[in-house]
Amino acid sequence: MAKRAFLTLIVVLLLFLGILPVLSMLVKSLVVQGNFSLASYGSVLTSGRQWTLMWHSAALSSMVTLLTLVIGTPLGILLAESDMPFRRFFTILFVIPLLLPPYFMAVSWFDLLGRQGLLAQIAGPVATRITSDLLFGLPGCVLVLFSVFLPIPMLLTMVFLGTINPRLQEAGRLVSDWKGILKSITVPLILPGIMLSAMLVFILAFGEFSVPNFLRYDVFPVESFTQFSAFYDFKAATAAAVPLVVVTLLLMFAESVFLRENTYQIRPSQEAVHSPRIELGSHLKWLLSLVTALAFIIVIVPVLVLAVQSAHTEAYIQALDYAGKSLLRSLAYAFIAATLLVSLGFFTGYLVQKKALWCWRFVDSSLLFLFALPSTVIGIGLISLWNTRWTNFVYATPAIIIIGYLAKYTALTSRISVTGLAQVPPSMEEAAQVAGAGWFRRIFYILIPLAGPTLLAGWLVGYIFSLRDTGITMLVYPPGHETLPVRIFTLMANGSPQLVAALCILMIAAILVPGGLLAALATRMKYKVNS
Amino acid sequence: MKKTILAIFAILVLVMAGYTVLHFTKEPSTKVSTVTVYVSEDQVFSEPILKDFEKDTGIKFRAVYDTEEAKSTGAMNRLIAEKDNPQADVYWANEPIRAEVLKQKGISESYFSPNARDIPARFKDPDGYWTGFSARARVLVVNNHVKDVPQSILAYTDPRWKGKSVITNPLFGTTTSHIAALFVLWGDKRAKAFMNAMKQNRTAISTNNGESADFVTAGQYDFSLVDSDDAVNRIRQGKSVKMVYPDQGENDTGCFIVPNATVLIKGGRHPKAARKLIDYLLSRETERKLAFADCAQIPLHPGVEIPSELKPIDKIKTMQINYADVAKKMVEIQPFLKTWMGL
Amino acid sequence: MKIVELDSVSKSYGNERALDKISLGIEQGERIVILGPSGCGKTTIMRLVAGFIPPDSGIVSIAGKIVSRDGKIIVPPRKRGVGMVFQDLALWPHMSVKANIEFGLKAKGFGKPERQKMIRDMLELVGMLEYMDRKPAELSGGQQQRIALARALVLEPKVLLMDEPLSSLDLDLNIRLRKEIIRLHDKLGFTMLYVTHDRDEATDIATRIITMKQGRIDLS
Q: ipTM score of the complex?
């Protein structure tokens, strides 16, 4: 009984946080002068131009998804399971581009490859003309988004590898080399994780607007964006965002069909066995060179560009001054949001995974729906719902920012929890039930510890996404209480490049410190669960 | 070990939540007078002015900033969405078109500031819904290697500069207003012909004015139509470019001026402080500061001291245009612009 | 010649000494059972022989060839000719019974017709032929046990390692499977290293019993 009541409460909460605001936007977009009308949808997908844009978006996000998977999954395996040196270091390194809003990364690349970029000073204008031409357009967008989203499949691969019973790989080692084991055993077992990361990357790339806009590759979200920015026409903007959501739901359907066949419970093994390390042996050299080269190109170079630009003490003094309390605020909001995200995500994940309420499918799809929707639509929806005299205590305080993050990003933690929970055998919960443990006790003493590593990964993802958010924050932050990325964003317009670069570096540092702590905790917990 | 870490973690969360709660409960919004302002002028330029205001008047400000360039949709959309329970008292628009939109949507309120008496009427809404100040001019930034310097925006259609000019994406920002102004001034037919000729002349498109100016600075293109601050900025950095006020001849159209604008929000919570802030922004002193700041904005009060790179407003031949008409035109020509962009 | 030989092998995990200078030899065709309470180091012996871990010091040889020595693995598991049945069986949940058995055959490069025949023969031997296309989750505990055995035996290992394979089964089934294992052993003649904490099981299966306590051989 407690279970049903509590989960229902969660669903109600979700309704208020995200679904109602957006629903009100959708309804409004369907009503013209008091009557039902599709007028706002008139231009959506009826003109050839829309289809071209849709095609562009599909091409971009497919390429980004494919590339991140093809490289991110092996990278994750290598960093989690092999005997390559500096694995922890590389892991942190590859995560860096995900820590900043993608637009910042695009700017950094531009500062390097653009016609008067750093490269031009080294390699001369002819070389830069080629790189600059490549940067502006599809290849540049793919490059930037690839570097930003690569950590998603990488991290999820690492997390899911941690949930595999090491015995399954050992059994393979008795007869096969690592190539065979990875292909036939490891990868199929972490397939749900790979699928999840594919879906997340696809949605993120599909909805990404700032990077393609900066690099001049026209994509579908531009339509919704211009409706907002040029016409302030909320109805048309919402209508223009709906196809994004349709694509997401199609994707979700395909995923559910696929995963129905491909999810397995993985028994945690009984003894303290570390998963076997892949001995790279003679392959170590070229693999290490490859990973180093990749890290160098997609992480170190753009960060170096920022570092070079900000290489003045005054820039940092000024940055600290400018960042001021916004840095503290950012960390505080992200901390709180991540904690709430992972809690809410765990329960919605439980609800979806166990199909505990009839509305589980509705919950799952609405979360993804919110995740796929442009932030502006959610932001405006939140404003219209929460900005009343009676709810000022929410709207005029940072609570609204947290609500915004919950609305937009719960899908992430929820989906991560679903996949984590799917691997805990139901017998674990049943055993506790038989032992007379109530639902809450079972959740806290059995499920949460068993799903621990995945939940931590969820927390980390929630933290990162809350911290780097600008879309939602920009629309709802209480006046005078902006977060650091928003501040950097607004300072970018005509602000000094040194200052902006210094702020970016500051932000990377601000995320890495608690992130590193968490990663340490995660390894510890992973060990404990396996034991 | 795990427990210790979790405990530390829990404490951190509590401290942060506590900090936030305390921070907001102690906010003395009723005792000290405050004003909430939404700002579309670049933060680097607007924030110092607002800080000065706080220092000079003792009124605390809380701001929501926005960026003009095609990245955010913040302040305006917030103002519109918050209409039924306005949070803002003042909107500092970076161009009058947005102020016009707010007027049309019934979000703003009329206010004639005593400090605006000297400001020429063509930069003010006749009904007082917005008041212009510190303006940018739409100028040509030209690389110094160009011998025969273009003097008119018509250079965009001149075969002499085929493939040598660049313009900012007309779907965003001040370029949109400028094109709309041309449509108002010339009529649709001529303006469309101009746009098409410009395209035929292989004019390149950039993302924002800063980028256009950079292209010209780098010598990649000969000239571009940008905001005066973009040009002045490059000149101050010692780049090899010059700034040309276009179409200054006797029968020419004149230079398109984009003033900042103050807007009083209807139903704001701090109406008194709001008016004080507007008066402050419209003062000669603010205009002087904005002229000497990196944004190099042209004062609209006569006789305000200005840096040497700028011309006083009464020495510039400005385009005679009604900003309300431009605002309407902007919406109208959007489909054309999209097609023009090949979208 | 001894099939498996441990020569003064030690192994520690952190501060915990799992094996303390163990020496042990197994003859061709023997059924050795290592008997001892949990934590006595018996599983560590298995893992050393399989090649999942190297000894800190000492030598492990299989069929007269040194496979690991003093902290180094010289021959990797897949080249040792060792079969293993894990305590939790470790059947690959995403593969059918057939695929579970076939995986090793493929890795060793057997051709398709050959593989088919070997799988059929093996499944027939353990009486599971009709379950060829099931997934492990669709089998009972005893059936899974047989598949794990079949998977380990199909490559005709020099030595079969069994790590408490019957511990999760009920007594009835446990006893039946002991007989089954002995039957298979008699028929195929492999060498077997079997680990258990159950004295009954040990006496039933073993041709020789080794008792272990705290990382040392207590009695053999």
A: 0.83
